From TrEMBL:
<keyword id="KW-0732">Signal</keyword>
<keyword id="KW-0677">Repeat</keyword>
<keyword id="KW-1015">Disulfide bond</keyword>
<dbReference type="InterPro" id="IPR016186">
    <property type="entry name" value="C-type_lectin-like/link_sf"/>
</dbReference>
<protein>
    <recommendedName>
        <fullName>Myxococcus cysteine-rich repeat-containing protein</fullName>
    </recommendedName>
</protein>
<dbReference type="InterPro" id="IPR011936">
    <property type="entry name" value="Myxo_disulph_rpt"/>
</dbReference>
<dbReference type="InterPro" id="IPR016187">
    <property type="entry name" value="CTDL_fold"/>
</dbReference>
Length: 385
C-alpha cells in the first residue's frame, strides 16, 4: 500500500488482475496513451492529492495533476498550466465529462480511455472470479465437466472441457487403442475402443465374412474368419418318403442348428421332375467336413461321373462324429436325377442311395434301396441369397 491509501499502480489493479497478464498488458497500453496525451509522467502520490488519487507531472516538470482511481469515486482534479508555445493544457469537469487535452488541433477524451480500461478490467476480474467460464484455464467452472488447463483431445478432459469417453471420436492415450466415434461392434473398432480381431465374436463387416468367437476350422467359420461350406451326413435315418424337398431340407437344417453351424443347409436330393440336388451347390467354394478336412476344392467337383474323386468321404455328422451306411440321393454321379421313390412318397418303390464311405462315384450312386428302408441324408451349406 502507498501513502495514498490505495495501490501504487495508476489504475489500482486488484490482486486478481495479476493472474490476467495478457489482459493487463492491454490496460497498460491504455494508461500509456493517457499519460502521453497529457504530455506528463506518472510520479506517484503526494500529500495534497486526496486519497486514492495519484499525481502526474508534465514533461517539463512545471505542473502536476492529481488523477483518481478509475474504479473509485474520487473526481479528477482540474489543473491548468502553460506550455512552451504559450498554449494551454487544461483538465476540467473530470468526474463528469472526462479529462481532455488540447494541443494544437489534436484532442483525446481520457474519459473514454478510462471507461474502456475499467470495463476491460472488470471483464478480466469476472473471468478470474469464475463468472465467465474459460475452457482451458485449468479451473473447473460452471458449465464445465472438467478443465485440465490444455486444449488437447488425447487425455481425460477434451478441449471442450467435457470428460473423454469411448465413442467420442478421440483416442484417449494409454486408455484407448482406437475410437471411431461410435459404439458399433461391426467395424474395425469395437464399442469398447479396442480393434476388432478375428475370433472376438463380433462380425467386422469390413474384413470378415464371419466371426463365431473362435479361431477353429470345421465349424462354418474358419480361423481367418472366412465362411466354410460344410457337408455332413445326418445322424438320424429316415425312410424314403419325405414327401417334398423342403421337408428333407428341414431335417438338414435342424441338425446343423443343433450343432451350432451357421448358415442355411439343404439336402443332397434330386427329384425326377427336375428338382436337382446340384441346383443349390455353392459353385466355386471348397466343401469341407466338420473336422476341417476338405472333401473337394470346388463344389462342382462332386459330379464328374466315373471320374469323380473326393478327397475325403462324407462320413461325419454335423458334430464331427463318424457315421456309416448309406444316404438317400436320387442323384447319379453325372448330376442327373435317378430313382426317387416316386418323388419320395411311395415306400414300396425303389430309390437311389450313396455310400457314406465312398470317394468315387459311389458316394452318390452306390445302388438302389427299398423306400421303406432307413438311411441318412447328405446335407451341405448353400450360399445365402
Amino acid at each position: 500500500m502507498s501513502a495514498c491509501g490505495e495501490t501504487s499502480h495508476f489504475y489500482g489493479f486488484r490482486e486478481g488482475m495479476n493472474e490476467m497478464k495478457a489482459r493487463g498488458l492491454m490496460v497498460a497500453r491504455m494508461v500509456a496513451a493517457l499519460v502521453a496525451a497529457l504530455g506528463a509522467m506518472l510520479v506517484g502520490c503526494r500529500a495534497d492529492c486526496p486519497s486514492p488519487e495519484a499525481v502526474v507531472m508534465d514533461r517539463r516538470s512545471t505542473r502536476t495533476l492529481c488523477v483518481g482511481d478509475p474504479w473509485g469515486d474520487a473526481a479528477l482534479t482540474s489543473t491548468t498550466w502553460p506550455d512552451a508555445a504559450g498554449m494551454t493544457t487544461t483538465t476540467d469537469a473530470m468526474a463528469e465529462s472526462g479529462l481532455t487535452e488540447s494541443i494544437g488541433s489534436t484532442a483525446m477524451s481520457t474519459s473514454m480511455i478510462m471507461s474502456e480500461a475499467s470495463s476491460f478490467a472488470e471483464q478480466s476480474e469476472s473471468s478470474i472470479n469464475g463468472d465467465s467460464p474459460f475452457c482451458g484455464n485449468g479451473i473447473q467452472e460452471a458449465g464445465e465437466a472438467c478443465d485440465d488447463g490444455n486444449v488437447v483431445d488425447d487425455d481425460a478432459c477434451l478441449s471442450t472441457c467435457v470428460e473423454a469417453k469411448c465413442g467420442d471420436g478421440f483416442v484417449w492415450a494409454d486408455m484407448e487403442v482406437c475410437d471411431d466415434g461410435n459404439a458399433d461392434d461391426d467395424d474395425r473398432c469395437l464399442g469398447t475402443c479396442v480393434p476388432a480381431t478375428c475370433g472376438d465374436g463380433h462380425l467386422n463387416k469390413v474384413d470378415e465374412s464371419c466371426d463365431d468367437g473362435n479361431v477353429w476350422s470345421g465349424d462354418g467359420c474358419d480361423s481367418s474368419c472366412d465362411l466354410e461350406y460344410l457337408m455332413f451326413a445326418t445322424q438320424a435315418v429316415f425312410p424314403g418318403s419325405f414327401g417334398t424337398k423342403a421337408a428333407a431340407d428341414i431335417k438338414c437344417q435342424n441338425e446343423a442348428a443343433a450343432s451350432g453351424l451357421p448358415g442355411t443347409y439343404v439336402a443332397w436330393l434330386s427329384f425326377s421332375l427336375g428338382d436337382l440336388a446340384l441346383a443349390a451347390l455353392p459353385a466355386g467354394e471348397r466343401l469341407m467336413r466338420t473336422d476341417g478336412v476338405s472333401i473337394v476344392f470346388a463344389a462342382e467337383a462332386l459330379l464328374k461321373g466315373d471320374n469323380t474323386a473326393l478327397m475325403a468321404s462324407v462320413s461325419l455328422d454335423a458334430k464331427g462324429d463318424s457315421v456309416a451306411g448309406f444316404a438317400w440321393t436320387g442323384t447319379l454321379a453325372s448330376g442327373e436325377p435317378g430313382a426317387d421313390c416316386s418323388m419320395w412318397k411311395a415306400p414300396e418303390n425303389l430309390g437311389l442311395v450313396g455310400s457314406l464311405n465312398g470317394k468315387d462315384a459311389k458316394w452318390t450312386q452306390a445302388g438302389l434301396s427299398g423306400c421303406d428302408e432307413l438311411h441318412h441324408l447328405y446335407c451341405f451349406r448353400r450360399k445365402d441369397d
